[in-house]
Amino acid sequence: MPLIPEEPQIHESAQGPRVTPATGRTAPTPRPVPGPRPAAPPRPGRPGPLRPAAPVQRAPRDVAAAKPGPSAPAAPAASASPQIQLIPASAEGALDAAEEAVDLLLESGRAPGEVLVITTGEPHPWAAHELSFGEASYWAQHDAGDDVFYADAALASRAAPRPVVVVAINGGPAASAATALPLAHARAGALLIVCGDPQQINSVLGAGV
After folding, report:
1. Do 102 and 95 contact (CB within 8 A), yes or no?
2. Which residues contact 86 (CB under 8 A, 6 or more apart)?
3. pTM of this prediction?
4. Averaged pLDDT for residues 36-53
5. What's the chain's Rg over C-alpha atoms?
């Protein structure tokens, strides 16, 4: 009958198998957990990481020299010229063209009080009607500034500037257009619309504006 080797007895005090190192061999030392890797030294010929430069101590005279002096006064901004639009029209149709331009301005959102209309020939029917009540009543409506104001070239010099000025070259002496266009250009804040003969308008505006 074959012999069954006896099972080794395990003592309760044993916590696990013990490994006895072989004679002449050293037990391996546990490796530490790797932490953050140190930055590699810069390679020759390549710059290393930039470091903030140390603050420079300035001498008192250097600090005094660095103080800004009194600033020079700003130059006044040059006044912007108004945009000019030319609507070709005959002397007979210039007033109608000006009326259409006013209607478009109001439809686009312009307030009536922002528009001044100047005529060089026959006055606009509104101006003729209002002047029939006297100049005091006529200019009172101009000063109110709540509606489109119409004036002929002779009276336009009294009109105050408005954002938009419309000029109708509807006849009159040549000197009337030569006077009205530069005057209208000076009164227009943003937009100048001129209805009339393009050649006449360009000759006047090119020389007088």
Report:
1. no
2. 194, 198, 201, 202
3. 0.62
4. 45
5. 47
